[in-house]
């Protein structure tokens, strides 16, 4: 159904009912927080819109004309329906804001999201709002995208470069992959950088296929090496960054991991970074959500916090 251009807006209908209640344009304006000049202008506008006089002005006040009283009677029903609609929308927004389901790849979930979620709760409490309850599950980037696409999460965070159709995406920050070894590994004492060919010929401790880290490393090696160059299979495939860090420290071999994930190990000397020439495995950390309207409520707040935190370090 398409409404004609003659239907007044809700504010005009509220004004008409206020004039009926108070018997005065000035009193109606005070009730609605409008000047008498603004009230008079709005009455003239709605009368032009409807096409008949709605308010009769006199020396002792104002009253509705017969047509005005009829429109006001209809307006009661419209405003009552609008109040029900407003209450329903408020309830929907409250339900949306009450719970936030997040899925994230391992690096984001283990090293970034805890701080973001604390900041979200702090902001909500500062605004005197009830904090959203949050459910967080951790998967590789491929699985994160699949869960968001299936509608099982409000927002996801991925590390890979590939995002399936049906998802909207927004970069929130960047990360770099680095080669790390245990302090006792021969590469820890190496004076010259590795070459991409040497890295490709070394069995690594690696993430599983489908992880963002594996996607970016495979793409970087494919770009740096001559076509057809063989890349050795991993010595170990592990499904979490924490497990790989532990395996490398135990001497299982080199690994390529997020700089965000290993910065404390590097600072403490538990791991050693090995430079690689001609290889720059940088990646973009992205938020994903179902294609459609822009994120609102706590999802929008969380994205703002993520961008701010990654930009400022």
From TrEMBL:
Domain HTH lysR-type: 8-65
Record-linked InterPro entries: LysR_HTH_N, LysR_subst-bd, WH-like_DNA-bd_sf, WH_DNA-bd_sf
SUPFAM superfamilies given in the database record: Periplasmic binding protein-like II, Winged helix' DNA-binding domain
Top-level division of the source organism's lineage: Bacteria
Family annotation (Gene3D superfamilies): Periplasmic binding protein-like II (3.40.190.10), Winged helix-like DNA-binding domain superfamily/Winged helix DNA-binding domain (1.10.10.10)
PROSITE patterns xref list: HTH_LYSR
PANTHER family attached to this UniProt entry: HTH-TYPE TRANSCRIPTIONAL REGULATOR, HTH-TYPE TRANSCRIPTIONAL REGULATOR CYSL
Family note: Belongs to the LysR transcriptional regulatory family.
Designated name of the protein: LysR family transcriptional regulator
């Amino acid at each position: 159904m398409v409404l004609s251009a003659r239907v007044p807006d809700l504010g005009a209908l509220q004004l008409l009912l206020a004039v009926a209640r108070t018997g005065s344009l000035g009193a109606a304006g005070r009730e609605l927080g409008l000047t008498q000049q603004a009230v008079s202008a709005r009455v003239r506008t709605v009368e032009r819109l409807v096409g008949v006089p709605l308010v009769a002005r006199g020396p002792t006040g104002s009253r509705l004309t017969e047509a005005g009283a009829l429109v006001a009677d209809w307006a009661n029903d419209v405003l009552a329906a609008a109040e029900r609609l407003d209450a329903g929308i408020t309830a929907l927004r409250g339900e949306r804001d009450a719970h936030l389901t997040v899925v994230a790849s391992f690096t984001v979930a283990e090293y970034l999201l805890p701080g973001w979620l604390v900041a979200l709760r702090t902001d909500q409490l500062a605004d005197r709002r009830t904090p959203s309850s949050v459910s967080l599950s951790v998967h590789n980037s491929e699985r994160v995208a699949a869960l968001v696409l299936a509608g099982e999460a409000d927002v996801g965070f991925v590390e890979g470069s590939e995002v399936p159709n049906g998802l909207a995406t927004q970069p929130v920050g960047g990360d770099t992959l680095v080669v790390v070894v245990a302090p006792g590994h021969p590469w820890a004492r190496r004076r010259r950088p590795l070459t991409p060919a040497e890295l490709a010929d070394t069995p690594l401790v690696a993430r599983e296929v489908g992880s963002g880290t594996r996607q970016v490393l495979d793409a970087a090696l494919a770009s740096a090496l001559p076509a057809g160059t063989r890349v050795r299979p991993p010595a170990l495939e592990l499904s979490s960054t924490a497990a790989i860090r532990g395996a490398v420290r135990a001497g299982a071999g080199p690994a390529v991991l997020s700089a965000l994930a290993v910065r404390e190990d590097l600072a403490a000397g538990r791991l050693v970074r090995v430079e690689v020439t001609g290889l720059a495995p940088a990646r973009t950390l992205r938020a994903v959500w179902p294609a459609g309207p822009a994120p609102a409520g706590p999802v929008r707040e969380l994205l703002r916090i993520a961008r701010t935190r990654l930009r400022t370090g």
